[in-house]
Amino acid sequence: MTPKTVPILLVLCVGVTTFASWYLLVEPELKNQDQNFELRLETLEHWEIRKSLESEQFEDRFAKGEMTLKVLGKNGSILEIQSSEVSSDIISDEIYWNIEEVSLVDRHSRKSIESDSYFLFPLNTKKQNYTFGVFGDRSHEFSFVKTEKDHHLEIYEFMAKDIYDISGAYEKYSEQKIYADQTTFYQVEPITGQIVSYKSLWQDYIESPKGKIIISNGEAEISQYSRDILVANASNLISLYWIYDTVIPILIIFSIIIGEGFVILYNKFQQGKSEIKTSKLAAIGELSARLSHDIRNPLSNINLALNSIQNEKDVNFSKNAQEKFEIISRNLGRISHQVDDVLDFVRMRPLKKEKLALHSLLKDSIDAIIVPKNIKIVMPPNDSSILGDSFQLQIVCRNLINNSIQAIGKNEGIITIRKKEDSKNVLLEFEDTGTGFSYMDKKEIFELLSTTKQTGTGLGLVSCKQIIENHGGSISVKENPTRFIVKIPKNDSNP
Question: What percentage of the chain's residues is helix, strand, coil (to nearest 5)?
Fold first, then answer.
C-alpha cells in the first residue's frame, strides 16, 4: 500500500461505512418513528337488534365509532401504545362501549411483546397471512384476499373471520350464552404498512336446541373522510420512503465518487508539485556548486568597485548619478541575498551553540544588510541572552529583515523588532508596515520553493524554519499587520 492509496481507501471506507450506517441504522429509525404507529379511524355503524327472544322484529340503530392508537412512551425499541375503540349513538352520543388496552410493541418488527403476534402490518407487507393480537387474549388470522388500486396506490386487502364468546354484552340476555360471528377487512398500503380502510360485518346469536337465534346483525365501515386522510398519509410516506430508499443512497454513492475523484486529482496535483520541486532542487544542487565562484565572487568585485567609485574624493557626482549608484547597490544586494538563500539552504551545517547577547545578534544582522533610507528599524529596548549558533541565527534575522524591506518597498516604513520572554523561551517579533500577503501565501509560506515575490527563490523562509527548529524553537506568521514570531529556547533544549 502506497501513501497515495491511503486517502483513496480512507474515502472508500468512510463512504461504505456511511452507506451501511444509513441502511442498517438511520433509515430503519426514520421509517419507524413514533408518529407512524399512531392512528385515528372513524367508522359509521348500522345495527339491527332483535326486540326480544319472543319477537321476530328488529329495530335499527345507527352509531359512530372511533378506533385510535396512541404512543404513551418508549424504552429503546419498545413502544407503549394505547389502543381504544369507542362506539356511540350517532344522535344522542350515548356510549355503547369504550374499550381500552395498553400494549408493548417492538417498533422494528411491529409485533406485540406479550404475544409475538403482529400489532400493525409491517413495512413492505407481503401477500401472506398475518396473525394479529386483538383485545383480550384473542388473535385473528388475517389472510390476503386481493389487490386493488386507490388514488394510484396499490392496496392489499386482508380478511379475518372469527367466532368468539360475548356473553354479558347484552344486558337483557345476560343469562344466555351469546356468540359473535365477525368478519373483518383491512386494506393496507404495502410499502408503508399503513391501514387505509376498514370494514367489519358481524352477527351475534344464541345457540339453542332449536338452532341459532340471531340477536343482532351489524356492519361498521370507515368514513370517507377518514379513508381520504389515511390514503393521503400513506401517499406522503411513500414519497418520503422513496427519498430514503433511492435519493439519499444515490447522493451517498455520488459523494463517494466525488471524494475519490477529488483525492485522485489532489494526488496528481501533489505529484506534479513534487516533481517540479524535485527538478528545482536538482537544479539548485547543481547550481550551488558554481554559485560561490561564478556569481558571488564577481558580485563582490562589482560591489568593491562601486564603493571605490562612490568614495572618490576628487570626483563630484551629480544627483542623477548618485541615484543610479543607489539602484545598482540595491540590486546587487538583492542578487547577493538570493545567492545567500540558496547557499544557506544547501550548506546547512551542524549547530555550534554558545551564549549570545540578543542585541549584539540583531545589530550584527542589521549591519550585514543594506537598509534603505526610507526604512527605520526599531530595536527592543532590553537585552536578553540565548543559547544558539550565532552564524545561523543571523541568517534568520537577515532573512526576516530583508523580507520586511522588500514588503515596504519604496514607501516610508518601519520595521519593529519586539522581545518577550519567560523562564524558558525568548520570543522575537518582527513587524513591518509593508503590504502583507494573502491567506494562501500564509498557508504555504514555509513550504519549500514557495515564494510570494517574482524574484524570490522560495528558500529563505524554509532555511529560517529549519534553523529555528534545529534550535528547538518555532517560527510562525500572523497578519494585520504582518508579524513573524520566532521562539528560541534560553537553554539547550536540543543538544
Answer: 40, 35, 25
Give, in order, the Cα–Cα distances in Å from 483 to each of 137, 397, 402, 442, 479.
Answer: 81, 13, 13, 11, 6
Provide the residue type at 184 as one letter.
T
Measure the CA–CA gap between 141 and 137, rounded to whole angstroms. 13
Which strand (E) or helix (H) includes residue 99? Answer: strand 95-106
156 forms beta bridges with 147, 188
**Angle 242-108-182 from CA coordinates, rounded to 5°:** 95
Report, as an integer, the average pLDDT of 294-301: 71
If we measure between CA atoms, which residue out of 442, 437, 418, 441 comes closest to residue 428? 418
Paired strand residues for 103: 81
Q: Where are the domains of the chain?
A: 32-222, 350-489
Class at the top of the CATH hierarchy for domain 350-489: alpha beta
- Predicted confidence at residue 272, as pLDDT, reads 82
Per the DSSP assignment, residues forming a β-bridge with 415 are 377, 432
Contact 404, 429 (CB under 8 A): no
**Residue 374 scores a pLDDT above 60:** yes
SS3 301: helix
**Within 10 A of 494 (CB to CB), how many other CB atoms are there?**
12
Query: 3-class DSSP state for residue 110?
Result: coil
The 10s digit of each residue's pLDDT in 152-198 is 899 999 999 999 888 888 888 888 899 999 999 999 999 999 999 99
Nearest residue to 287 (alpha-carbon basis) of 329, 349, 338, 330: 338
